[in-house]
Structure formats: structure tokens, C-alpha cells
Design goal:
heterodimer; A: 459 residues; alpha+beta; PmbA/TldD fold; 2 domains; six-stranded antiparallel sheet; 9 helices; 21 strands; B: 472 residues; Double Stranded RNA Binding Domain; 3 domains; eight-stranded mixed sheet; 25 strands; 22% helix; globular
Chain lengths: 459, 472
């Protein structure tokens, strides 16, 4: 089905479902119609698996005043839609009131939808195999340290429509392309994994991804024990700085956490929370990024929000209900299982989530940052444990075997597994350098390479 | 024609179509699963949701190469298209697929498995389930004055049907219920939180069992939160740790179980590939993966390739005995079928996953285990964690206690437990005699984009030396 047909179908079903809801005398209804086709192909050391399919479904919120019920179903057949409407309505009847709920989005208003790549729906498994071949170009598979190499290509296309009995009827479409290659290497007692990837709304060049992964993996072999425990500066490559910042920022910028008084920054609006040159934007309108949509998942137009400017906390991000509860307004941040955390969108209620947060570039590139370090640690792979930080205190302790020792401005040697401990909120005040070399991270946050002070390194 | 006969007919038509189009093997699966979630936060029903997941998935093998497609369109055209696409994928990728994981035919199985459930959740109203949460929350408030409370109820039931080109036809009706309770306390500069509860492959009668009534779960949540108010910092560094059934089960599942999944093994991605017969752990380490256990947990009679689940010994007295398999990896490695091919729903192909993974019991009483440790940490419950493909793990222990002179003395603040499972197994010093296995609607296992698959994990209390305790 072409993208134009997808839009026509989902808007038509949204409209039809609202008519059924009216016939069933449901006082207020919101319907979320989802249609996404996808194809995934993986090659793990010559073991090829492929999967395609069509995910169709409807999520329905029925409201009786402030009483809300939610039900969802796969497929678009009339009987299932009517059953789901009745189910959502019956749940609403027996649910207590939600005092914060103040109705569904009432207007049809849209923002930029973002780039659509009309070639993606026409790619087939043979094309995707060719992309795997391109990823492997220029890579030496004869290296005896290579244990396995894998390739993956994922594509999807489709969209969602949102309709409410109050008068909203909008849609947003998307195409996505992702490709990655991973190598596993061993040497003596060292076992290292390295990967490279591309991700976006359009087909991307993939040549050399495996060679890049191999280069990084080989550099990581020959690791030495750190030996001891020291407080040192840590330099994080762009793709590693992003997930490191994800956990604190998703917590402290949450409008739902602010309203529910669980947000550690709930009393810090207008206050200095980071170093002076730190600016963080939540961007739902960059047309090349996956987060760019015409509407969020409850029908509010997506937007770009400056959350932290020059170190000052300017706002939190909200969906409609929490925005109104905070006497502010939605920032277009209603997500349904599409952002961080995953889940099936049409089975998910709207909740507050990031679009694409990004830390603005400031000054020095990675090499310049390394050159300024007398003794410190370079982090080149996402540590494990980032999401086990204490959400209240911000204390964290993570481990990685993707790190290098820096001495006198030079990268000296790779390290065996180390732990890095500190406090997330203190870290934001201890940023030594914000870099100039931001890459796509694959997370709902992108950041340039960064240097932090005050982390405890031990093994 | 009844709806179930109609679906069975669709599945057979898919299989017939595949056989005519020259594939070696084809299977068609149908899911009709209904899930309900209720979230009661600060006495407000924040979520009351019902989901229906209904659709068909088709797996075709051509020359040992798989292709999978799915559809939610339950009509002949939808299923024919999915079948055609699955076969096309298998044929299109065959040339590149150099690691063939084909398998020999096995005798057909025709079976219908329906759990004996006394109080099926489908027979009870939404208000009955909400009432259980309210009772649980009331019990929290009897223990302390919380700043906020959370009660969560989840249920899943429905039908699964599998038909394949060998003539196998399996009907299976899973049921699962779950209740969790949590509380947060913030006052006068002190902060504490708790979250506890469990589920079972049972009906609502599970919440009438003494240990798992809503009241008991609520009381536990209140008690664990209250303990945290004046908890002390965990001793950092390498500690001898008594790991609870839940904590040990999760550590083994996440950090060892995944390494034993044969799809990681045949591709060389697992660090325990080609190491069967090697002494990986101490003599106290015996690790099991089982579909239906005498200790409860997840009830899983068949996997999603129609293979009866069995009891797989992964490690026996420290020696690696085998891996977890689907039909293809079992044949490639000349191993027994283990029934570990599972899919979260019809939108995914079955891949190698765990069932109930647990430490086998030891011979110590709980008191003897504490005495043996002397001074250390008792790690009971966790809230999240991460693992690497190299066996490294990191878990956040949100309920733990200090062990001093063989006695549990003080509750500990949240702390991180980390290490490498392949190192840690060498430092297992013993286990208690009793086994507990848990499962649930909430949480679950994630792999290859298939998150939230219900699994079971547990064991006895296990003594592990050299666990790195951090201060998160």
C-alpha cells in the first residue's frame, strides 16, 4: 500500500470509528489508528533471518466526564472496532474520575510532518541483502581475531491518525531506515564487541559500516587493568554521551513528574541547573529525524521546545492533561510506546515522553578534549547500568569494558572492565567541556562529545 | 462454521499453500490474547486498559532458510498474502544464508492444553479487580503514611493455535494474573520507596493464597518502604552476598541464560560457545531451564514450534552441559530438543528464549547460609538492570539487608550489584534447600525487539562471593 493510500485509510477508519462511537452514545471518544509495515533482515555470521508484516490497530479512549476507559484491538474489522468501543465505554463507566483529565484535543491543527522516503516501501529482501553487502565493503574478514560479524537492515513505513469526537481529525506519516553492523573479536583473554550504524527517515549510505566497527573493535583489544580507584575526568564520545544524559533528562524534564511531585527538579524552574553554556532543546520539528511528526499521539501539533537555556531550566515537557494540570499547555510531547521504552503504540495510552532532545554543540572536538586531559578516561561504548541510577538521589554506578586510559593528552591503552560512579545531577553541574561533534545516537537524545569532572573510576 | 473452526481452517490453508509452493516446512500460528491493565496511582485510576491481540503469523523454511510474515487480517486473503510473503522472504534470502538451520521431520502432535483455573479472570468484573488494588493500597497505609502509592493489576488470557506441515495441531489457552504494590515516602529530608508483588499462571484464586493476597502485598510494600526510611548505606566493594531466589533468578536469567541461547552460540556471539564439558562454576552451581516446574512460575507446556517443553540442565555441578534450542539449532549442534522457541505474539517469529530458569537447590538452611556468610549483604529484590553479551551485569538492588555475624541486622539503601557472571559462578559457595520461582504479567524478558515475554525465574537463596556492591 502506498503512503498516500495509508493516509486515506487511517483517516477514513478514524472518521468511521467516531461515527460508530456516536451511534453507541459514547459521550466523548478519542481514536488512535495505527498502520505500520515493516521488514527486518539480519545476517548473523551467515545465519539469515527475515520478517515482514503489517501492524494494524486501534486504541480507543472513551470518556464520561472525567471517567476514562481505554481499550485496543489489532486489525480494522468492524466487529472488533465496535467491541473495542463498547469495552472502552464500559471501563469508563466503572472507573473512578480522574480529576486531572480535561477532555481530548478539540482542533485539527498540524505541524511539519518530516521527510518521507517513497523508495522505502518498495525495498525488498534482495535490496536489503545488497545493503548488507555494501556495509561489508572494505572489511577484512580474514583477521583471526574476528569471532563473528553481523548485519541488520530494518525499514518501516506507515503512520497514525487521531480523531476525537470534539473535532480533531489529523494524521502523520513516517518512513524509517536503519542499518547496523557488529563484530565480536577476541585476543588472549580480551573479548570485545563493536558496532556502527546509520538511522533516519531516508535510505542512508551504509558503505564501510563493518570496517568502522572492526577498526573500533581492534583498537579495544589488548586491554589492561585500571588497578585501583580514582576520581578522574571522563571524556564521552558523542554516541555515548547521549545515553549517559538520557536517564537524568528524561526524569528531570518530565511534566508528569512535575505535576505528580516526583520530578527531582520540580522546584527549579527558572533556576540554574547546569553549566552556563549548556542548552537543551526538545525537537519535534527537525524534518530528517524520526521524532518529527505533524501531531503528537493525542493530536497536538509537534513543536520545538527549549527546555534548558544557558544552564537555566526554562520549562518541562507536557502532554495535554499534565500541561493543563500544571496550568501550562501541552508541548506536543504525548507519546504512545514510540519513544523511549518501546511498546505497541495503539496498545499504549498517551504519556509524556521526549521527542528528540539535543544538547547544543559548543566548542571543542573529541581530540581537543582528550588533548586537555592530564589523566582521565575515554568512554567509547555505552556502559551497562545507566538506567539503574537512583531516580530520587541521582546516584549511579555503571560498568563498561569500552574505555581507554588517557594520560598527558594521549590515549594510552584500552581498559578491562571498569566501574564509573557518580551523581547524575551533580554531573550536570560538573560539565567541563561540551563538544562540537554531535552524531545521531539512536536514542531520543543526541549530544556532542563531552567531558565531565568528578567521576569515581575503579575496577 | 464456528470462529475456532474458521481459524483452524485458515491455518491449514496457509500450510497447504506453503506445501504447494515448494517449501520444506511451514507453520502457521494464531494468537487471540486479551490483556487488561489497571494502574491505581495515589488512589486515582490512571490507567484502565484492555487490549486484544489477534492475528496470524506464518514461518516458512526453504532449503533451511526461514522467512516470517504476519497479518492481523483474519481472512483468507490476508493469510494467503502473509504466507506468500513468508515464502518469498525465505526464497529471496536463501542464497545469502550460508548457515542452514533446517531440521528433520518429527512425528505430529495433536493436543489441547487448557489450564485448570478456578477463578478465571474473564468471569470477573473490572470493579472486582480494582477492589483488590484498593485493598492492597489500604494495607500500605496501615503500615506508614506514604507520600504516594501505586497499585497495578495485570491479566492475560486467550488462545494460541499452531498448525504445521508435519500435521501437528496444538491448542493452548494461557492464563496469567499479577498484582504489584508500591509506595514512596518523602518527609523531613528522608526519602524511601518500595515496589513489590508477583504474578502466576493461575486465575484470581492466586490472590487468595496467604503470601500473595492484595493485603499481604500491600503490607509488604508498606513495610519495605518503612524500612528504607532509616536504611544504612551498603558496604561497597566486593562482598559475600546471599542472593534471594528472585534476585538470583534474575541474575542467572539475564546474564547467563541469554548466553546459553543457542542462536547466540551457533553464531559465536556467546562467550560460552564451544565450551560444553568445561567447568564454568563451582560444584554448587546447577542451573535449570524448565517449561512446567513443580515450584510454580510460568506454565509453558509447548513452545511456539510445537515442541513439548522439558527440563534442560544447563550447568550441573559447575560443568556446562548444554544450551537452549529451537529445532534448527538443536539439529545443527546434534542436541536434544529443549522447547525454547518462543514468540511474544503473532507479529514476531519464534526465537530462542528461556522458560523458567533457576538455580537448583542446595543443602543449607537459611540460618546456616547466614552463618556461613558471617558478614555481607542479603540482596532480596531489584528494580532494573542491564547485562552485556560478555556476561557483565549490573542490577539495582532496591531491597537488601546487612548481614553481621551471621545475622540480618539492618536494611540497606538502594545499591548496585555488578560483576561478570562467568567469574561469579566460580564463587558460588552454597545454596539453601527451598526453591521459589516467580513469573508475572509485568516486566518480562526482552530480546531482538520482542520485549515483555513472560518467563519464570528463581531458585533457592544462593551464597555468592566477590559480588561488587556499589552505591547507586
Amino acid at each position: 500500500m502506498s503512503l498516500d493510500k495509508v493516509r486515506e485509510q487511517i483517516l477514513g477508519i478514524a472518521d468511521q470509528t467516531l461515527k460508530y462511537a456516536k451511534d453507541l452514545n459514547i459521550p466523548s471518544t478519542e481514536v488512535f489508528i495505527y498502520n505500520l509495515s515493516s521488514t527486518n533482515l539480519t545476517d548473523n555470521k551467515g545465519k539469515v533471518d527475515s520478517r515482514d508484516g503489517l501492524s494494524l490497530g486501534i486504541g480507543i479512549r472513551a470518556a464520561i466526564g472525567k471517567k476514562i476507559g481505554f481499550a485496543s484491538t489489532t486489525g480494522f474489522d468492524e466487529e472488533s472496532i465496535k467491541t473495542t468501543l463498547n469495552l472502552a465505554h464500559s471501563i469508563a463507566k466503572t472507573s473512578p474520575e480522574n480529576p486531572m483529565f480535561n477532555g481530548f484535543v478539540a482542533e485539527t491543527k498540524t505541524s511539519k510532518e518530516g521527510i518521507l522516503d517513497h523508495v522505502i516501501p518498495n525495498l525488498d529482501a534482495k535490496d536489503m541483502i545488497e545493503h548488507c553487502n555494501l556495509m561489508g565493503q572494505g572489511f577484512d574478514s580474514s583477521d583471526t581475531r574476528l569471532v563473528s560479524v553481523s548485519y541488520a537492515v530494518n525499514i518501516s513505513w506507515g503512520g497514525y491518525a487521531l480523531g476525537t469526537s470534539e473535532g480533531c481529525l489529523s494524521s502523520s506519516l513516517i518512513t524509517t531506515y536503519g542499518a547496523n553492523s557488529m563484530v565480536v573479536l577476541t585476543e588472549a583473554s580480551d573479548r570485545k564487541t563493536a558496532a556502527d550504524f546509520v538511522l533516519g527517515r531516508e535510505i542512508k549510505p551504509v558503505e564501510g559500516l563493518t570496517a568502522n566497527a572492526m577498526k573500533h573493535g581492534l583498537e579495544s583489544l589488548g586491554s589492561k587493568a585500571f588497578g585501583g580507584s580514582e576520581v578522574l575526568p571522563t571524556v564521552w564520545k558523542s554516541r555515548e554521551a547521549a545515553p549517559f544524559l538520557a536517564f537524568p533528562f528524561f526524569s528531570v524534564l518530565s511534566g508528569s513528574g512535575y505535576v505528580e511531585k516526583q520530578n527531582p527538579w520540580k522546584d527549579k524552574l527558572g533556576e540554574k541547573v547546569c553549566v552556563d553554556d549548556f542548552t537543551l532543546i526538545d525537537d519535534g520539528q527537525n524534518p530528517v529525524q524520526g521524532a518529527c511528526r505533524a501531531i503528537d499521539t493525542e493530536g497536538t501539533p509537534k513543536q520545538t521546545t527549549t527546555a534548558i537555556e544557558n544552564g537555566i531550566l526554562k520549562t518541562f515537557v507536557f502532554d495535554k492533561m499534565y500541561g493543563e494540570a500544571a496550568e501550562m499547555q501541552s508541548t506536543g510531547n504525548a507519546t504512545r510506546g514510540m519513544g523511549f521504552g518501546g511498546g505497541i503504540p495503539f496498545e499504549s495510552l498517551p504519556s509524556v515522553g521526549p521527542n528528540q532532545m539535543l544538547v547544543k554543540n559548543v566548542g571543542k572536538n573529541l581530540d581537543e578534549q582528550i588533548a586537555e586531559i592530564d589523566r582521565g578516561i575515554l568512554i567509547t561504548g555505552t556502559p551497562i547500568g545507566l538506567f539503574t541510577a537512583n531516580p530520587v538521589t541521582g546516584d549511579f554506578s555503571v560498568t563498561t569494558n569500552d574505555a581507554f586510559l588517557i594520560e598527558k593528552g594521549e590515549v594510552v591503552n584500552p581498559l578491562k572492565s571498569i566501574s564509573i560512579a557518580g551523581n547524575n545531577y551533580e554531573t550536570l553541574k560538573n560539565i567541563a567541556v561540551i563538544g562540537s561533534d554531535r552524531e545521531t545516537s539512536g536514542w531520543p537524545i543526541d549530544a556532542p562529545s563531552m567531558t565531565f569532572k568528578g567521576h569515581t573510576i575503579s575496577d | 462454521m464456528s470462529q475456532s473452526d474458521f481459524i483452524l481452517d485458515l491455518l491449514h490453508k496457509s500450510v497447504d499453500q506453503g506445501s504447494k509452493l515448494g517449501v520444506d516446512f511451514i507453520e502457521a500460528r494464531y494468537d487471540d490474547l486479551q490483556l487488561t491493565t489497571i494502574a491505581l496511582i495515589n488512589d486515582i485510576v490512571k490507567q484502565s486498559s484492555a487490549f486484544q491481540r489477534k492475528g496470524i503469523g506464518v514461518m516458512a523454511y526453504f532449503n533451511g532458510t526461514p522467512g516470517y510474515s504476519y497479518t492481523p487480517e483474519l481472512n483468507l486473503e490476508g493469510v494467503k498474502n502473509a504466507t506468500k510473503r513468508a515464502i518469498k522472504l525465505a526464497k529471496s534470502t536463501d542464497e545469502r544464508n550460508v548457515m542452514k538451520l533446517d531440521f528433520e521431520s518429527i512425528p505430529a502432535v495433536k493436543e489441547k492444553v487448557v489450564l485448570d483455573v478456578k477463578k478465571h479472570p474473564k468471569d470477573y468484573e473490572f470493579s472486582d479487580k480494582l477492589d483488590m488494588l484498593k485493598r492492597g493500597v489500604s494495607s500500605i497505609k496501615e503500615v506508614l503514611k506514604p507520600t504516594s502509592t501505586t497499585g497495578a493489576y495485570g491479566e492475560m488470557f486467550g488462545e494460541k493455535l499452531l498448525v504445521n506441515s508435519e500435521g501437528t495441531e496444538i491448542y493452548w489457552a494461557p492464563v496469567m494474573v499479577d498484582i504489584r504494590m508500591g509506595s514512596v515516602f518523602i518527609s523531613e529530608g528522608k526519602q524511601a520507596q518500595s515496589f513489590t508483588g508477583t504474578g502466576a499462571s493461575k486465575g484470581l484464586e492466586f490472590f487468595e493464597e496467604k503470601e500473595t493476597t492484595p493485603e499481604q502485598t500491600g503490607t509488604n510494600a508498606g513495610k519495605y518502604c518503612k524500612e528504607q526510611i532509616d536504611a544504612v548505606a551498603a558496604p561497597v566493594g566486593k562482598q559475600t552476598t546471599l542472593v534471594s531466589p528472585l534476585m538470583g533468578g534474575v541474575v542467572v536469567h539475564e546474564s547467563f541464560g541469554h548466553l546459553s541461547e543457542a542462536d547466540f552460540v551457533v553464531t559465536g556471539q556467546s562467550p560460552i560457545a564451544d565450551r560444553v564439558g568445561e567447568q564454568l562454576g563451582s560444584e554448587h552451581v546447577t542451573l535449570i531451564d524448565e517449561g512446567v516446574t513443580q515450584y510454580g512460575g510460568l506454565y509453558l507446556p509447548y513452545d511456539d514450534q510445537g515442541i513439548k517443553t522439558g527440563r534442560t540442565v544447563l550447568v550441573e555441578k559447575g560443568i556446562l552441559k548444554g544450551y537452549l534450542h529451537n529445532r534448527g539449532t538443536a539439529q545443527k549442534m546434534n542436541a536434544e530438543l529443549t522447547g525454547n522457541s518462543r514468540a511474544i505474539n503473532f507479529m514476531f517469529d519464534p526465537i530462542v528464549r528461556m522458560k523458567n530458569t533457576y538455580f537448583e537447590k542446595g543443602d543449607l538452611s537459611f540460618e546456616e547460609a547466614l552463618e556461613k556468610i558471617g558478614n555481607g549483604v542479603y540482596a532480596v529484590d531489584m528494580s532494573g538492570g542491564q547485562v552485556g553479551l560478555d556476561g557483565n551485569f549490573m542490577f539495582n538492588c532496591n531491597r537488601g539487608y546487612l548481614i553481621e555475624n551471621g545475622q540480618i541486622t539492618k536494611p540497606l539503601k538502594n545499591h548496585a550489584l555488578s560483576g561478570n557472571i562467568l567469574e561469579l559462578l566460580k564463587h558460588v559457595q552454597g545454596a539453601t534447600k527451598d526453591i521459589t520461582i516467580r513469573t508475572g504479567y509485568f516486566g518480562g524478558c526482552g530480546k531482538n525487539g520482542q520485549g515483555g515475554l513472560a518467563v519464570g525465574f528463581g531458585g533457592p537463596n544462593v551464597i555468592m562471593d566477590q559480588v561488587l556492591v556499589g552505591g547507586a
